[in-house]
Structure formats: C-alpha cells, structure tokens
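Q: Joint fold for the lines below.
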Amino acid sequence: MLALAVHRLSAWLALLGSVGVLAALAVRLSPGGSPALALHDRPVHPTLAVDGADAPLWLQVLRQVAALLQGDLGRSVRYADTPVLALIAEALPVTLALVAGALLVAAATGMGAGVLAALHRGRAVDRVITLLMVACLAAPLPVAAALAIHIGAVSLGVLPPLGWGKPAHAIMPTLVLALPAIGHVGRWTRALLVDVLERPFICQARAKGLGPTAVIVRHAMPHAAGPLLTIFALLAGAFIGGSAVVEEIFAIPGLGRLAVEAMRARDHPLAVAVVLCGAVVYATAMLTADLLAAWIDPRRRSGIGTGTTP
Amino acid sequence: MTTRRRGRYPTGIVAAVAVFVLVLPAIQGLMPWDPTHTNLLAAMQPPSAAHWLGTDALGRDMLARLLAACRTSLTVSLAAVALATAGGVLVGIAAGVAGGIADAVLSWAADVVAAVPRLLLAMVAAAVLGGGAVGVTGALALASFPTIVRLARAAVLATLAEGYVHASVASGASGWHVARVHVLPAIRGLMLNRAAALVGTAILVEASLGFLGLGAPDPTLGGLIRDGLAALERAPILAVAPMVTVFAIALVCHLAADRAAEMDGRRPVSPSGA
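A: Joint structure:
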C-alpha cells in the first residue's frame, strides 16, 4: 500500500509538471502570446518589463516554470495587476464547493437510479431509467441552467436566480452541474451491477438467505466501487470544465468564470494558472480514487503497473 | 452480458433518420434561405408561414440561422471526432503493439492531455489555434483524443492476449501484420460506437464554447442559445429551438452508440472512456 502511494504520488507530481510546462508553452504560442502585446496601448507595468517578454520562447517557459515551482503564478492582466495566486485563492473554494456538492448529488442520484435499473433489468423500470440517464447525458449545460432558473426562480419563485453568498444560491448551480454526471454514474452503476449480479458469489449470497438490500450493499457494490471511484474522479475534472458555463450563467465568482475571463481578455498568466488548477483538481481526484480503491479492494494494492484505469 | 436483440431496430432507425434529417438541409447549397439576411422592419417576429421559427433581433430568419448553425456545429464536431478517432486509433495501436518505451511515452502524452478538463482544454486550444472553425475543430479533436487513445490501447492489449494472435506471432507475423490483420478489425466496432458517443459529447462542448463566445464564427448552436436566452421573455422560441436541437443531436448520438454497443453484445468499456 505504501509503495503504491509513493508510486502514485510521484506520478501525480510528474503529471502536473508536464501540464505546467505545456500550458506555459501553449499560452505563449497563442495569438498575442506575449504579455507586453496583450497590454495594447496601456503603459507597460514595471513587473512585466522585467518579466523578459523579449527573451526566447524556451527561456520564457523555463522562467515561468521556475516561478511556478516557487509558488509565484505572476500577475493578472485582466484584473489590474492583482497577483494570480490571490485570484485563484478566492475563486477555487467557490468552485470546489460546487464540485463537491455536484459529486454528492450525482453519486447519490446516479447510484440509486443505477441500482434500481440493474435490479429491474430488462423490465419497463430499467428502460425508463436508462432513457432518462441518456437524456441527462445529452442535456447541454446552458439548457439545464435555463430550465432550472425558469422553474426554481421564475415559476416557483423560491430560489435566487443568480449570485453567490447564501446557501440558497448554491442549490441550482449544483443541480445543473450534476445533471450530466447523474447520467454517467447511473449508466456505469447499472452496467457494473448487471455484470456483478451474474457472478456465482452473488448467487451464493442469495442462497444463504440474504435480502436484496444486503446483497447489493454488502456484496455487489464493493465490487463495483473501484470503477465507480474512477468515474467520480473523472467527473470532478469534468465539473471544473463545466463550471465555466454554470458560473457564467449564475454569475458565480469561481474558477470557471476566471477561465472564461482569462480567455476573453487573453490574460495569459491567469490562463496558465487556471489550466494548472483544473489539472491539480483532476490529478488529485484521480490519486484519491486510486488510493481509496486500493483500500477497498485488496487486489489493487500490489498493482503498481496497472495504471489509473481499472 | 448476453446480447439482447429485442426492440433494437426502432431506436436505431429513428436515430439514423434523425441524423439524416438534421444533416441534409445543413449541406451548403441545399439550403434556400440566407442566415445573414437582415430586415429590421421584421425583427422579433413570432413564427409565421414566411418565417417558420420567427425572426431574431436583427430580423434574420431563425430557421435559416438554426440550419446554418447545425451545419457549422455538426461539421466541426464530426470533423473533430473523425480526426481524433483516426489519430487516436493509430496512436493506440502503435502503443499497444509496440509496447515498451513507445507505449510508456504515448500513454503518458494521452494522460497529460486528459489531465486538463475537457472544456477548459477546448477553450485554451481554441485560443491557441486562433478561434475560427478550424481552431475549434482542432480544439475539439484534442479534447477527444486521449479518450480514444486509452480505449484503443486497452482494446489492443485485450486483442493481443487472444490465442489466435499468439499463434500468428508464433508463426512469424510482423507487428505491422498483427496490427493490420488482427487488431484493427477486432477493435473497429468498439471504436466506431465510441466515436458516435464522442460526437454527442463534442456537440455539447462545441455548444458550450459557442455559448461562452469562444467558439466558431456565428452562427453556431451555442451562440444561438446565448442570443436566445437574452431575449427569452419576448421570444422564447429563439432560445428553445437551438436548445432542443443540441439536446436532440446529443441524444441521438448517445442512443445510436448505445444501440450499436448492444448489438455487439459488448461488456462495458473502461470508465476512462466515459
């Protein structure tokens, strides 16, 4: 278990290092890739003048990576020279709260629906749930958000349509973000359970007199836990991307909104930081899922070479 | 999982017809209306015989704009997934068949690309590639790429473990021969149905990009949704029409992929393909 943890941690660091270098490179290769150019006619700030925008590409990337390693993310262009780290520190908790909420909703609803469908496999309940799950998958985020605002804020009038600050503000964005994820979790839960429920050990569990709940909770679900944890980690990454749309619509001051602002204003230090941040959340979620899966399923503990995918 | 053949045709046929209906009028030249023709005297009109879906704030015919947007969005998404599938399958086969260092490097590259959330990656890639339809196509292709590589690699490894492949290798077949004759036909079905599902995902990402104003040039489905939402009170049809269209395309792609997988009688694919 310790060897596995060390192996996964070093892979985590190496992955983030690669993403950092590539993000710094990509942003400099984009049109207007130099900070001095992005300023247009505004006076060049002394910090940018010493930033070495005239240096060769590889040196600029190297310098930025060195700065990143020291925890210096640079200064934002769009937000009047605010340190990027301060912007991220303000926005990340907001988005993480959304992501955590959406994960909880998706896990509870999706797993519930998936179990129900697997238990009624081939019957009407299964077909209705399967169709609903596909519909969830296919729902575009702006559409889900518009529907949510229409129902929650306009028709019922019980929830605030936009903004951030009170717990009530988080309800609709969380549900909207979770909607496609419910489809993913539901489909995977069903598929994994249908596979497991045909195994002899389930038959044996039933034969010894266990009720359906005990069979599912004690025997079938632990078997499906590993792949499901990977799904949750993938979803955590997807939520960071989805937060761009959801936060834009609901006017939430989170990471996704920063990402959109950074792209629109060609704010490169901020763009690199946001991409890196998304990768950190994804890689950390993957790492956690890996270690949790190894903790639940002893067969995975020795599997250093098996990679992150089950 | 045993193959279930009951009731497979209706959904498959409906899906095929739906794609056809959506794609056919979207082909350039077959569309008789001009999506850019403005007429301020006929702005924000409700649906009528002349304008089936009404007109927008500049008096442009909404149906024409919707079809033009379908053309852009479908072209971009289909091209991106075709690109990603062709490249991803090649890389996946190369990684799986070659093994060793080549496998490690290629898998590593796929992991790095996959580490950046899909929409975020598409946003950055679209910015780096300079926006426009080509930039967005490249961005969507890059965002779909790691999924295909991982799936292809996993499928290749599963195929290489088969007895007939061992027999082929033992009788002196080259890596190239194994890849071409044994591996490619074995993974073709899976890759095609995953590609169909990825088109559904790509359409959604494209719509999100368009919605955020970072997508292909106007009109796109995402852009129509954004413009429509701004005028939701006065003319709900302007938002509802593109919304239903995006939803329908994505739904059809996923249903078609599911049906194809079911006809194949396959076990669930790896979650990394989710």
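Q: Anything notable?
A: Chain B touches chain A through 51 residues (CB under 8 Å). The mean pLDDT of chain B is 81.
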